[in-house]
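Input.
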Amino acid sequence: MRNALLASALVAVICAIAGTYVVLRG
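Output.
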């Protein structure tokens, strides 16, 4: 269960970084 939670958190962080990159790129 902890691994699934960690994976979900990692995916959320990656999505946030990708979203920020797209917004900054224009």
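The chain has one helix and no strands.
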